[in-house]
Amino acid sequence: MNRLIVCERTGRWATALRRELSGPIRQTRSLSQCWKELSAAGAGFAVVELTEGNVKDLLRRMARLERDSPFVRLAVVAARRLTGYEWLMREAGAVHFVCSSRQLGPLALLASRHLENLLQSSQTSPSQDPSERIWASLPWQDSPAY
How far, in Å, CA of 83 to CA of 122, rounded? Predict the structure, then answer.
C-alpha cells in the first residue's frame, strides 16, 4: 500500500499538511518507526522532521533509502533555526526542505504527484516490458509508430 507518512514529535507538521491534502496521513514519532512503516508499505512518501538530535541518524538512513526503498521519496521539515541544514539534506536525497508550516503547498503537491504516479504504475500490466510501459504513458501513445 502506498502511503504518506509524517515522522515528527509534536503533530504540528501533520496538522498543517492535512489542510493541504485530502488523503490519509500516517503519523510516526520516531525514525525507526517511520522506516518500519515505509518498509511495510513498499512505496510511499515520507515527511521527516529534522531536529538537532536526529541529524546523524537521519543522514545514515537517507544514505540507504534509495537502495533499500527505491519507490519512497522523502522530504524534510525543520524549525527555522535549522535552515542551514537544507542543502545537506537535499544532497542526501531529500526532494524538498521546508522550515515553515505556511509553505507546505509545494511539498503537498510533490507528495500527491508521487503517490499518484505510484498508483498509476501499479495499475499497468506487469506483462509489459519497460519500453511498452513508457510508450503507454506518453500522451501521444495512440498515434501510429513511425
Answer: 36
